Amino acid sequence: MHSPKRKIWALLLFSIVIFLTGACKKEKNSFSKEDVKGAEKLIGIEFSKNNMDTLYPYLQENRAGFDSLRKYPLDNEVFPAVRFDPLPRNFVPRIQDDFPVWEVPSDVELPKQTSALAFYTITQLASLIKNKKITSLELTEFFIERIKKYDSVLQSTITITEELALKQAKKMDQELANGKYRGILHGIPYGVKDLMAVEGYKTTWGAEPYKNQELAVTATVVEKLQTAGGVLIAKLVSGSLARGDVWFGGKTKNPWDVEEGASGSSAGSGSATSAGLVPFALGTETLGSITSPSTKNGITGLRPTYGRVSRHGVMPLSWSMDKVGPMARTVEDCAIVYSIILGEDPKDQTTTNLDFGFDPKKDFKSLRVAYLKEDIEKDTTEHKENLKKAVETFKNIGVDLTEIELPTAIPFKSFDIILRAEAGAFFDDLVRSGAVDSMVEQDQKSRANSLRQSRFIPAVEYIQANRHRQVLIEQMHDVIKDFDVIISPTFGNKQLLITNLTGHPVISVPTGLDDEKHPTSMTLVGNLYDEASILLLAKAFQEATAFDELHPEGY
């Protein structure tokens, strides 16, 4: 028999356990007014006690609404009902109706050293295939072997799609033997950033939590390249969730200097194209991810106007900022690939059906060209001297230049809110599940940390940032409306941030090497939907120089 005192103590202990259990549940699932006061400090606002008493029950209802939303899963392809429109007021695209017909020369010969094929342009490779001097299968096997040989150092490739590639190459050879030629990409190998889904293969997004992910879809851009005769040989590294050049398997290297990273997040596309592991690749950009690795690895990269290329089957980072574009040896290579992947896609409602309008034979001297003289003079990067020489090259080939400046009276520091808030929405489950903790990088500048802190961005501030974005769109239009092209530093000014927010197209073009033999670049900015003008001027620059023919040693 237990004494009355022991029964009292047992009952008291039981009551304490019940209380603590309930307290823990309350702590986990609710919040206090003191918690709200702490949040006030975070967002820079303060309410009175009376206002807090009124506000608190409403916040509890909001929290219940959040919990209710989370019970309904969202598919990757679900786009927000609110869509970004890059058009300024009264904007009319200056687009021609003609469409380039890509000529395939007949006089290209196989090199004496087979390894030289690695740095042939698309046009040269197309000539060899069309004129049956090499088969697609031979070319495909050549590039796959290069990946296997060099990628242990470069770490540019996540998956070699060998089975698919060999099957496609054999099909292209058979079609050519039967008299069917699909066009300039017939039988040409290529790679894509591993944010782009390919059914039957992993789509890892470069991140540990998704390294075994397979999606039952193929990205529209991959389907378009396949239809054009392209042969997919590799899924190339994306920095983890489109951030930097570090992924779950290591750090992608710059073939010009393997002590350095390839920059991100289209790191694999930049490194592999530069080292001649693929003739061209697709990348994506939200805030510099085509431009930066193109620069770092010494290749040409085109970031099209927002909405020009479908993102169906491509990992979203920011629905209102993501763009897909080609990364290649030359401007003409970029133009060729772009002409195939652009266009309206019913699976991506942000896409347009405007014509390309690129005429490679048009007189580039007819273009109205401006340059950011003050930004170039103030440039503190290693690109400055080569950029100044590039400006002189334009003058020497007959281009008239007008000095202009980009918008400045804008709260630029606030715009990262847009990217982080949208990324936080897409990766909400990753953060709430705790799986974000398994990502390789966890420091202050990591994607993992960015996703966590996105939860603390108020909806009001996100909307306000987008209102300021509209002001920026109008201001940028006022700057560029009287010109076809603006010549800008790639880094060191606000160009990269501005054009990614406004949706304007840019092309990054090599301008030589710096004192340490690392590639440098410049950026040409065009009007919305007018990739044709920046491609035309960039092509003229490459015809007047030989920087696009430079390649890293040892490959």
Structural features, described:
The chain is globular, with a radius of gyration of 27 Å. Strand 2 (about 190-195), helix 7 and strand 3 form a beta-alpha-beta unit. The chain has about 550 residues and is α/β, with parallel strands linked by helices. It has an eleven-stranded mixed sheet with strand order 1-3-2-8-10-9-14-15-13-11-12, sandwiched between helices. It has a two-stranded antiparallel sheet with strand order 4-5. It has helices spanning about 5-30, 35-45, 50-70, 120-130, 135-155, 160-175, 220-225, 265-275, 290-295, 330-340, 375-380, 385-395, 415-425, 430-435, 445-455, 460-480, 495-500, 530-545, and strands at about 155-160, 190-195, 230-235, 245, 250, 255, 255-260, 280-285, 300-305, 325-330, 370, 400-405, 485-490, 505-515, 520-525. Helix 16 crosses helix 17 (about 495-500). The protein contains 18 helices and 15 strands.
**Strand order within the widest sheet?**
1-3-2-8-10-9-14-15-13-11-12
Low-confidence spans:
7-27
Largest beta-sheet characterization = 11 strands, mixed
Structural class comes to alpha/beta
Q: Based on DSSP secondary structure assignment, what is the total number of beta strands? A: 15
Number of DSSP helical runs: 18
Distance between the termini: 87 Å
Estimated radius of gyration: 27 Å
Which percent band covers the strand fraction?
Answer: 5-15%
What's the pLDDT, averaged over the residues?
A: 93
Oligomeric composition of the shown chains = single chain
Residues in helix, %: 40-55%
- Tell the overall outline: globular
